[in-house]
Write a structure and sequence with these properties.
The protein is 85% helix and 0% strand. The protein is mostly helical. The longest helix has 34 residues. This is Mobile element protein.
Length: 40
């Protein structure tokens, strides 16, 4: 693999980790709001 492709794959992996953390945070907030509103 050339260096540019490896660099791009590393950047995509980091973006994936960041988006997964964001999704987990939003999902947890959603669950807390549902619970607070009595919708669970």
């Amino acid at each position: 693999m050339d260096a540019n492709l490896i660099s791009e794959m590393k950047a995509m992996a980091e973006e994936n980790r960041r988006l997964n953390r964001m999704y987990a945070d939003v999902s947890m907030q959603n669950d807390l709001l549902k619970e607070a509103l009595g919708k669970k």
